[in-house]
């Protein structure tokens, strides 16, 4: 089930039935708001009052009506809806799709609006309208153009899109100019970068350097050998479902490195643990080696960035580990054989910044310090978690990149798209599964990597963008004996590959299989949820969660709940110390508490109601109080500060050096105004982790934190870019538009070692996994 029509990579409309008035059977007279501006404004007013339309959308309509009093009401209506789509992640309004399913164009409450005197639904208003009439109303040179110009709106007919294949298909998209411009920037920037292949000098070194970097081929097969460790599931295992299918011979990581090194624009996509970070670190070593062979004293200036502070911190950690394992000495030997002068050391940066910082975000403006006129001083930019980057930010980054710089995007194309408009990575990677490498690329790859490409991935019609994308297909974190990996794979099957029923059966089969890292809980009583959040319900996992090891043969600690960090908080508290005299003792304590917190996180889909963040936070706080793990009145637990309160930062605060997505824990430290160590006299401070080993904790007074929320429950949207050892994903009892395949996939892949999938009512998961988010764009 899809909620809107969409377009393919080249701007062609995906075939949809001709627009039909939605109530074609009965003769209906046209709604007045289609022809009368004051009726339309009144209608918008009523929609805004119900929360179906935003104030912002109505303001745009008013502005346009004032600027052009002769503008047809139908045009103004289209503008209101186009503006509204931005708040829902779409870059533009697709007129055809809107006529096919008008009620998707507004934010209608999922379970209906039971207030009296509801305003007319879009399906009633648009019932008589045809696509032709609507298109005709858009002919207004002051307000709408079909491309460059100053009009506030831009209309694009799909058959005028790049590389149109189906002239007959009609699709009309209406953009607010700014968003049309972002899309143009992306098209142009990416196309230009794809034309310019990277410097060919010293490319003869490429195959040799790749061989050095991927010499440890055992790597690829290594995970298989470890399966004996989990031999309790070996016997039952259905090998046909294996994630290792087809993946055994081709080293996709090596392929990714080669392709990304060849082009000024590259994408490496893959699910969790497929080695995106591992690959990019090798890519950087490769690029640096090639550069130093060419210019021994001029190493590449490499920058690493991620969309959120949390994602940046995570990449920072994993990159640092990976850089240490690079075969730098062998690369330097190779380099010395190729270079007449002594080259610089092969240095790979490990510091990761946020995109906002990289571009020099300035308060109160959407303009950045670095832009086309003042480009970034770098040669290579790697952007991790690129699925979270919206179209506006992606356009800003590409504009600020020097023409010769190389840009590499990393991310999981199947994850939820950015909160803001656009699904850039998903759009760009729509053909990644089948690769579509041309015979020329295949030949080049074979000589660069020494691996012949299977025919299934070769396509003489492959497009330039296809040649710059590699999809990593082997999970090194979740092997075929991992329920988390199997569930992610079953959920992620594209809808064209199987029917809804088949997908549901595949998901059910994984849930019933009895994997050691997966527990499926249907709530029949409240106590089960309480037990989960307190203890993690380890007893529900095979062998109580004991005895598992990871792919490095290290023991995996059994799953926990929130009791774990609260116990750490009490057990590790520095006693008899003063906060001022011995800050290190408090830093160590806070660090341990924060690490313990990262062992468990409850995720949910909604914000409001008993199954949303708001209801769950209070409920969990009270449950933990009942266990004497937290203290405070109902009012304090709901609205105040108390020791143990975990908080999530919801907006960047450059003054406090806190980023959207950071998690801190409230701790009671001795009050400096009382005598050192006097028991009972304490102050609350919130401890946040930093990336500075000298000063691992930032202590902040609660009164200084304005954009935080309790995070016993976190929405899946907010959890992007994070991972937790034990993740519990809670689905509400009724289906809701927000519950989609992408949401469930993103939620379950936040789990590193353990996943508890909680259904408030059996069946919601089955429905959710067959619903896909489709974002409208012209990408
Ligand atoms: N070829 C390989 N053989 C064996 N282990 C590997 C291989 N590639 C990566 N790994 C290991 O798998 C784990 C995940 O790798 P990595 O962090 O690079 O994946 P990722 O795709 O970046 O993960 P994430 O989902 O966290 O973004 C790491 O422990 C890494 O060392």
Whole-number mean pLDDT: 84
CATH topology of the largest domain: the name is Rossmann fold
Shape: globular
Biggest sheet statistics: 6 strands, parallel
- Domains (count): 3
Strand residue percentage: 5-15%
- Gyration radius, to the nearest Å? 27 Å
Helical fraction equals 25-40%
Give the class from helix and strand content and strand pairing. alpha/beta
Question: Are any ligands bound, and if so which?
Answer: adenosine-5'-triphosphate
Low-confidence stretches: 1-27, 160-169, 217-248
CATH superfamily of the largest domain: P-loop containing nucleotide triphosphate hydrolases
User: Which strand order does the major sheet show?
Assistant: 7-6-8-9-5-10
Distance between the termini: 22 Å
Indicate the CATH architecture of the largest domain: 3-Layer(aba) Sandwich
Determine the number of helices (DSSP H or I, runs of at least 4 residues).
28
CATH class (first level) name of the largest domain: Alpha Beta
Number of strands: 20
Binding site for ATP: 270-277
Protein name: RecBCD enzyme subunit RecD
GO cellular component, one term: exodeoxyribonuclease V complex
Family: Belongs to the RecD family.
């Amino acid at each position: 089930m899809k909620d809107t029509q969409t377009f393919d990579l080249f701007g062609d409309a995906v075939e949809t039935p001709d627009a039909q008035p939605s109530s074609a059977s009965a003769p209906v007279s046209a709604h007045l708001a289609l022809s009368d501006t004051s009726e339309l404004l009144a209608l918008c007013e009523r929609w805004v009052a119900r929360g179906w339309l935003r104030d912002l959308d109505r303001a745009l309509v008013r502005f346009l009506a004032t600027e052009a009093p002769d503008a047809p009401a139908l045009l103004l209506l289209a503008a209101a809806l186009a503006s509204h789509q931005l708040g829902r992640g779409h870059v533009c309004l697709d007129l055809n799709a809107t006529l096919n399913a008008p009620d998707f164009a507004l934010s209608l409450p999922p379970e209906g609006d039971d207030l009296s005197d509801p305003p007319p639904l879009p399906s009633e208003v648009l019932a008589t309208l045809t696509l032709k009439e609507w298109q005709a109303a858009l002919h207004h040179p002051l307000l709408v153009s079909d491309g460059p110009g100053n009009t506030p709106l831009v209309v694009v007919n799909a058959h005028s899109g790049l590389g149109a294949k189906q002239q007959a298909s009609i699709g009309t998209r209406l953009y607010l100019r700014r968003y049309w411009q972002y899309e143009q920037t992306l098209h142009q920037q990416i196309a230009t970068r794809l034309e310019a292949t990277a410097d060919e000098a010293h490319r003869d070194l490429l195959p040799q350097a790749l061989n050095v970097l991927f010499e440890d081929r055992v790597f690829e097969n290594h995970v298989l050998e470890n399966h004996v460790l989990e031999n309790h599931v070996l016997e039952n295992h259905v090998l046909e479902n294996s994630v290792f299918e087809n993946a055994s011979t081709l080293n996709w990581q090596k392929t990714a490195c080669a392709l990304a090194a060849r082009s000024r624009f590259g994408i490496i996509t893959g699910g969790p643990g497929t080695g995106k970070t591992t690959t990019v670190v090798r890519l950087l070593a490769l690029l640096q080696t090639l550069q130093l062979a060419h210019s021994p004293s001029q190493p590449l200036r490499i920058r690493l960035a991620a969309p959120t502070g949390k994602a940046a911190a995570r990449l920072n950690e994993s990159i640092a580990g990976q850089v240490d394992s690079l075969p730098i000495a062998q690369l330097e030997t190779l380099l010395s054989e190729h270079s007449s002068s002594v080259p610089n050391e092969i240095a790979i940066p490990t510091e990761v910044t946020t995109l906002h910082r990289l571009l020099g975000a300035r308060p109160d403006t959407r303009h950045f310090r670095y832009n086309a006129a003042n480009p970034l001083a770098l040669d290579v930019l790697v952007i991790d978690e690129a699925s979270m980057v919206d179209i506006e930010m992606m356009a800003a980054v590409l504009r600020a990149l020097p023409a010769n710089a190389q840009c590499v995007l990393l991310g999981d194309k199947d994850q939820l798209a950015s909160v803001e408009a656009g699904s850039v990575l998903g759009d760009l990677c729509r053909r990644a599964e089948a690769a579509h490498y041309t015979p020329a690329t295949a030949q080049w790859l074979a000589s660069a990597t020494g691996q012949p490409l299977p025919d299934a991935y070769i396509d003489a019609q492959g497009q330039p963008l296809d040649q710059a994308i590699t999809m990593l297909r082997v999970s090194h974190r979740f092997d075929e004996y991992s329920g988390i990996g199997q569930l992610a794979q079953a959920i992620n099957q594209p809808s064209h590959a199987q029917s809804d029923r088949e997908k549901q059966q595949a998901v059910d089969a994984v849930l019933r299989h009895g994997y050691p890292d997966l527990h499926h809980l249907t709530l029949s009583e409240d106590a089960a949820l309480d037990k989960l959040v307190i203890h993690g319900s380890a007893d529900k996992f095979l062998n109580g969660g004991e005895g598992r090891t990871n792919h490095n043969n290290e023991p995996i600690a059994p799953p926990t709940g929130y009791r774990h960090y609260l116990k750490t908080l009490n057990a590790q508290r520095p006693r008899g110390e003063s906060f001022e005299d011995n800050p290190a003792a408090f830093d160590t304590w806070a660090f341990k508490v924060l690490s313990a917190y990262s062992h468990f996180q409850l995720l949910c889909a909604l914000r409001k109601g008993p199954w949303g963040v708001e209801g769950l936070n209070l409920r969990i706080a009270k449950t933990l109080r009942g266990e004497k793990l937290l203290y405070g009145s109902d009012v304090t637990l709901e609205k105040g500060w108390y020791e143990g309160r975990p908080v999530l930062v919801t907006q960047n605060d450059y003054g406090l050096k806190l980023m959207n997505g950071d998690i801190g824990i409230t701790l009671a430290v001795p009050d400096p105004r009382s005598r050192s160590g006097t028991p009972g006299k304490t102050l609350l401070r919130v401890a946040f982790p930093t990336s500075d080993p000298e000063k691992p904790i930032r202590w902040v007074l609660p009164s200084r934190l304005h954009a935080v929320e309790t995070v016993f429950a976190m929405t899946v949207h907010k959890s992007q870019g994070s991972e937790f050892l034990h993740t519990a994903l809670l689905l509400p009892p009724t289906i809701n538009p927000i519950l989609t395949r992408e949401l469930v996939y993103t939620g379950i892949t936040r789990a590193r070692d353990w996943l508890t999938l909680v259904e408030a009512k059996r069946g919601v998961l089955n429905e959710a996994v067959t619903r896909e988010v489709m974002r409208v764009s012209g990408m």
